[in-house]
Amino acid sequence: MPEPLRDVIARHGLSASKSLGQNFILDRQLLARVAAVPGQLEGEKVYEVGPGPGGLTRALLDAGASVVAVERDRRCIPALAELQASFGDRLTIIEADALQIDERSVAGDGAHVVANLPYNVGTALLLKWLGGDWPPWWRSLTLMFQKEVAERLVAQPGSDAYGRLSIAAQWRSRPRLAMTVNRSAFVPPPKVTSAVVHIVPVEAPRGVDPRIMERLTEAAFGQRRKMLRSSLKQMPGALAAAERLGIDVQRRAETLSVEEWIELARALSA
To answer: Do 181 and 193 meet the contact criterion of CB atoms below 8 Å apart?
Structure first.
């Protein structure tokens, strides 16, 4: 029977760092449920960011995965090293800032990303993983966010939550809300409810430059309460392209479907 996480944390004198956006989960059953979200992990590669004292890491290893864990907080390294002593070369620990890492070089292609992301870098990491070349190096993303962020990832047109993050997650991947996690599951309890999102890549639409998509949605949603005829003026050619496609420029950005954003980005990528 593994040592209770509360005892591991106490033995190593650990406490969650507010500046690093840390919140530890102690419930091993809950951690096992998170580890099960991506599916069968026996023999699979997993990339984890912010393992902290190693609760989720242990659940992933127990599920049969080989884990590359990136931790910035050196206070947590001894606790992770104890796991490494138990699981050998199935656990690789990297002390580094996850925003600076070339994930493909350390995790390889086809890894599942599973992480209780630090709140202060979660969105930045997600956008990093959703950007760039396609298909991506990762096979799936299973990520814990504040519920508000999770809802933005899966939001549909016309809702208040729908915006740049929704389109970034949906134009060439499929996100779903896998589970919600109550505040009480964390130490210390955050002020908000959390949620786990599962994202799988799909084939990218042809003829769309991801940099154009990013610039287009940044212009449109930067002034989301304005009509497109005003907000798209910031991007050369966007207004004319919308009119050619028959998109009513008196609409607001949040009313356009992901498919309409794809068509507009394709027209500007040509």
So the answer is: yes
Task: List the Cα angle 123/124/127 in 5-degree steps.
Answer: 85
CA-nearest of 72, 97, 36, 203 to 80 is: 72
Domains belonging to the chain, first-starting first, are 5-201 (3.40.50.150), 210-269 (1.10.8.100)
Going by C-alpha positions, the residue among 26, 68, 32 that lies closest to residue 50 is 68
pLDDT tens digits for 16-73? 566 555 577 888 999 999 999 999 999 999 999 999 889 999 999 999 999 999 999 8
The helix or strand, by DSSP H or E, that contains position 42, with its residue range, turns out to be none
Kindly state the tokens that stand for 150: 């999770």
**CA distance linking residue 39 with residue 34, whole number of Å:** 10
